[in-house]
Every structure is written in structure tokens, then in C-alpha cells.
Specification:
The structure holds three protein chains of three kinds. By secondary structure, chain B is an all-alpha fold. Chain B is built from three helices and no strands. Chain C has a single domain, classed as Four Helix Bundle (Hemerythrin (Met), subunit A) (Up-down Bundle). The chains are: A mainly alpha, B mainly alpha, C mainly alpha. Bound molecules: copper (II) ion (CU).
Amino acid sequence: MINATTTMESVSYLDHKGKYKGIFAWIFATDHKRIALLYLYAISTFFVIGAILGLLMRLELISPGQTIMTAQTYNGIFTVHGIMMIFMVVIPGLSAIFGNFFLPILIGAKDVAFPRLNLFSWYIFITGSILAVLSQFLRSGPPDTGWTFYAPYSTATGTNVIFATTAAFVLGFSSILTGLNFIVTIHRMRAPKMKFFSMPLFPWSIYATAWIQVLATPIIAITLLMLIAERLFKIGFFDPAYGGDPILFQHMFWIYSHPAVYIMILPAMGVITEIIPTFCQRKVYGYKAIAMSSLAIAGVGYLVWGHHMFTSGMSETARWVFSLLTFIVAIPSAVKVFNWLATMYKGSIDLKPPLLYALSFIFLFSIGGLTGLVLGSLATNIQVHDTSFVVAHFHYIVFGGMGFGFFAALHYWFPKIYGRMYNFRRANIAWGILFVGFNLLYFPLFIIGMQGMPRRYYDYLPQFQTGHVISTIGGIILIIGLFLMIRNLVLGARKGAKAPANPWNGSTLEWQIVSPPPQENFDEDPLIKNNPYDYE
Amino acid sequence: MSENATHITEYKTLGIVLVTLLFFTLITIVVTSFDLAVWNVVLALVIAGTKGFLVVTYFMHIKYESLLLKILVGMVFFLFALILVITFIDYAYR
Amino acid sequence: MENELIHKEETRDDTAAKLGMWIFIFTELLLFGGLFIVYSVFRTQYSREFHQAALELNVTIGAFNTIVLLISSMTIAMALTALQKNNKKLSLRLIGITILMAFVFLVNKYFEWGAKFHHGIYPGSELMMKFEHGHLLYFSLYFFMTGLHALHIIAGMVLLSVIFFRIKKGIIHSEKYVFLENGALYWHLVDLIWIFLFPLLYLIT
Ligand SMILES: [Cu+2]
């Protein structure tokens, strides 16, 4: 088995003393591991705020009519919830936190290619986040357009759209620079003997993600700039009153925002691909297929944006072409799911918390993915378009997929990051509550959505109330589970038992070094295997 | 990838490229001053494309760069063309 | 693999810096690419109005600016050649000429925009609001595209000035010139975008 090749004298990145002291040793740090933690703390904060906003919405919807807030506040809250969760949590989430921390280690590098640019990206991220938060409080009130900023309403509403779109623009810039950094890191910083096809699969998924970040984000950047100019000068691009075309805005918006879904989900898939072989002690089934499917998802995922616009008045031809392309993109996703299951076959499965999260990822993602096909096919789409069916679908993908992937990554790499272990029993309990709460919260939305409950509505017909009540109860349970999970992790980081270098008996490079990793990651050249998942 | 043997583009090459670019600029102005209906757009874009190709190849040294970079540059232009075409599947058939 | 040679730390990796710059250039290309999509959609919808509106632009000014940018693109490429051949003085002079050309471009643009403003044509103006739809969209695109391009010219001038002083101080020299190389790449990008803007806005009438 693998032993820690690092000597015990090396200083961990947490204790390393550099030029600066105290908090400055963190906010001026260029070390990728410290930057990863900066992202972790910022993003977790936004996530908790976003979750609380979500709970407020659920409480409002527990009965028809006004319950705890006015309709305008409700519109503001669902917009803010969307903007925060999308642009500040799930898009940067896995790649900026775990990509930053583990990408260099997994490919045997000492840092990313441009460490200072990396820190700069974090500052841009924080600037954008501050702008987004400010947009909620400035005098004209929080934007009420939904996170999609659809024209022409967004060109006309009196609320703070300019601030919110500027925030999204700035956050996009941070995303681009992170992606750029990772691509160059993977091309130029791999350890000697680390070939592309001997990289673990998490770096592969980060690589595909980084390309989407770099190639899709500029489109939303220019779209948001045009929207801002539209509001400032009436240039008329998206305003039919001046001959502009609101559907063009939808095209431009989704050219980015569909691939953005893969920015969220691909790294989560990468995490799952790391966890399953470790906890089954099996070589990954179909390594190349999984690696290539990441690239395929990135490539085809770029071309399917129109499935968000089936009812917008797009041409008949465009509709079936987009529907076809959407079905094609399901293939590489399915390749991954089948390969994970095949990896587990005949493995010695060890049901520890990271694997519990990973398995629930597969379950929830499959539900989200299959309902995605319901939305991708033309006829059924028109029935459920803009209903809570859509809300349920994308929460199964984004929260059930990316969110649970994030929790899985957190529980998997926690001992490596902090050098301590959390309590397993409490982690299992928190997982159970989260999983039950999640399904109670979102599954009823599929049903009432099919029955015709529109999304984003403040008020509804009494027949939908049962579904809404169950959903709200699920939301409360989910928040309790979330709280228990965070509490357990915080306790673990503070007082948990010291973690060994390789607590899960993993085979990839991060488990060859001590926990927490030394400042320079590798004190000696790491041992690189041809196949990173060498268990047999 | 030839790491250390950097290619130095000669002044003369750069000069020739500039003259060619200026020549194409003249052509495109002359050609588009006639009314050739749709062909105006086609010709102007073909000439602009040629000029762009020269700039990328010689001024930006893509000719002497690694295969990786060449593929990436090609990929980006291809991707843009693809998005444009797919967008027009909507607009052309409305 | 080629990486074995340069993996060891402390080794400067110019290829990485250049790859990073190219990826950045891709993002810029797609940024303008988004605008070209908008342009093509409106052009097909309003080809008659675009045709007429384009006649109101002065081809001579546009052509002059095209020539200025093409020459500046060559001078910055030559500046790199000069530095690689260890001719610091010539390199500095050529970068100076490039920045000067950029300045000429902006002055020219200033007068061109100024004349339009003088005639009451500017984004949000009363006159423009009265235009036919296609006519309005053409001028909106004109101001948006050339404006964004002019911002890139300014950014390029700042970048090249920084490079100018770094060469003067000897921070960038004939053995370590990747910064100049990247700055030149950026400048070529600005030129490249103009190569497409010029016919689309001025010529296709
Ligand atoms: Cu989509």
C-alpha cells in the first residue's frame, strides 16, 4: 500500500509562516490551498444566506395569498436567491474550492500556473459578490427579474437591475480567470511522467469545466453589457419598442447559461468519480470513457441552449434541432452513471459518509437527468414549461447533483484539508436528514408542476396547497440537516481526532502526502502510476 | 513543441505582410463600392477573413507555434461559427 | 513529454504565459463574437435600413483608421523582432510609434464620433429615437461596437506603455521578452477585431 512519502518535519500549509501575519497571511496568500479555503468560507456563507432566502420563500408558499411577505418582496427574494446561488455558489463552488485545492496536488504540481492571478480572481469574486449584495439594499430595491434577467422586463423595471447585472459581469470575469489558470496548469504543470491519460478523473472534469468557463462566459458578459447599455441609453437591442428582439436576449443568455449548468455539474461528477473507486477499492471502470465523456458534455453542452426557449416563439426547425441535440447530450452523462455503477460491481463497498453522499448524488442526479429529458422533448415541454416541474428538475440537478457532490467532496477531502476527522455517526445522521428533507422538499413540486402550478408565482389555487405544505416541511427538515452537517464539520475541524495521511486507503496523489499537506505539497517527487486507480 | 528554439520573424516578412494587408484593404474598398447585391457581403467577409488569417499567422506567430495552440485557435473560430449557424437555424426559418 | 524539461520550479515558463495570453484572447474574441451575432441577426432583419444607414458613415475616415491600425500592428511585431535581436533602442522606438498610432486612431475616432454627436446622433438622443427601427439599431451597434473597441485600444495603450518602461529599465530584455510578446498579441487582437468591424460597419452598404 502507499505510505506517506513526506517526512514529518515539513510545515503544513495551515501553520506555514510567510511574509504576513494574522489575517493578512490569508488574504495575501498566493498558495492555492489557502486561496481554496478563502473561497470555501466565502461561498459557504453565501450558500447559507441563499438557503435561508429559499426557506423564506417556502414559508411564504405554505398557504395561498399573503403569508409572511408582500408580493414585491417575494419577487425580490426569488431573484436574489437565484443570483446568489447561481453566480456566487454553484458556478464557482466546486472548481474554485476543490479545484484550487486538489487540482495541483492530483497532478503532482506545487501550485497553479499563475498563483497571483489566482488570488486576484478571488478578489474579483469578492468584489462581484459585494456588488450583488449591495444591489439588494440600494434605494430602488432588489431586482425583481429572476436570475435570468429576461428582456424586455429587465430593460423596463424600476428596480436595481444595473447593479445586479454588473455583479454578474464581474463574477463572470473571476470565473474566466480561474478557468484560464486551470487550463494552463493542466497543460504545463503536470509532474514528469504524469501524462494526460494518467491524470485522475477529477482533473479531467476540471479541465473540461475550465474550457466552458473560458469559452462561454464572454457571451454572457457582452449580453449583460448590452443590457446595461440598453437601460442607460435606450440602444434598443432587446426592446421591441425600438425594433429590438427579446428572443435574441434569450439566445445570448442561454448560450452561456446552459453550459453554465455543466460548469456546476462536471466537477461534481469528477468528485464522484474519485470517491467511488476509493470506497469500493476498485479500479475505475472505463477510465477513458469517463474522461472523454467530460469533454463530450462540454462540447455538445455548448450547442443545446435552445431547449430553454421552446415556447418563446422560436422557429419550428430550431425547436426540433435543439430537442435532438439535448437528447444527444444525455448520452455522455449516462456513460458516466453506468461506469460508476460498473465500478462498484464486485467491489468491497465501505459505506462511509463520503460514499453515502456520492450514492445519493447518483440517485438524485438520475432523477434530475431523466426529468430533464421530459423537458427536452418538445411535446412534454410545452405542458410543463414554466411550472414548478422545472423548479424541481433543476434543483434535483443543481442541489441534488452539484450540492450533494459538494457535500461529498467536503466529507471526502476534509481530513486532508484540516488534518482532522469529523464524527462519522453525526455525519451519517445529518446525511439522512438532508436526504429525506431534500426529497420531501422537491419531489412534490414535480407533481404539482405537472398539475399546472406555475413557477415564480406568489399566489396559487387551493388545490396545490397539499404539495406546497409537504414541500415547506421538507424545506425545514433540509435546513435542520444542513445545520447539523455544518456543525459536525466545524467541530471536526476544531477538535476532531488527528487524521492519518490516507484515512480512506485512496490511491491518488493527495493521499501520498501528510494531512494537512505541506506548504509545497510534495517534499519529494511523488510516485506516479500509469493508472491512478491502481487497487488490484 | 520546440521550447527553446524561438522563431524570430524577419522585418522583411512583416513588411511584406503589411503591404499585402494594405493591398487587401484597397481591394475591399474598391469591390464594395460597386453594387453586387449579396456578393458585397460575401466578398467583404472573405477578404476580411483572409486579412485576419494573415494577422493571426504572421503577426501573431501562430505559424511557428505548437500544434496545440494551432488546434485551439481553430477550435475557437469553429465554435463561434457553430453558434452563429445554430442561432440562424432559428432566424432563417421563422 | 515536453513538460519534463520545464516542470522543475524556479524555471520560468514562457510557454505557459503565452498559452494563458492566448486563452485570454479567445475570451476577447468571443466577447466581440457575441456582438457579431447580434449584428448578423439585425442585419438580416433590417438589411434595407442597414444599407442606408451605413451610407452615413465616412469611408475615408474608416479606411484611414484601418491603415493606421495595420501599420501599428506591424510596428509592434517588429518591436518584438528588434528586442529578440537585442536591439533595445529600435524596439523602444517601434513601441513608441505603435502607441502614437493608437493615439492617432483615437483622435480620428473622436472627430468621427464628434461629428455624429453634432448632428444629434448619439445613443438615446431625440433624433435617434425618431429613426426607423433598423436605422436606430445600426447606429446603436455602431456606437456600441466601436466604443467597446476604443476601450480596448486604450487598454492596449496602457499595456504597451508599461512594457515600454519595463524595457527601458531592463526588466524586459532580449532573453526575457514574453511580456512584450503577450502585449503584442493583445495589440494584434485589437487590430484583428477592427479588420472585421471596418467592412461590416463602413463598407457593406
Ligand atoms: Cu439547459
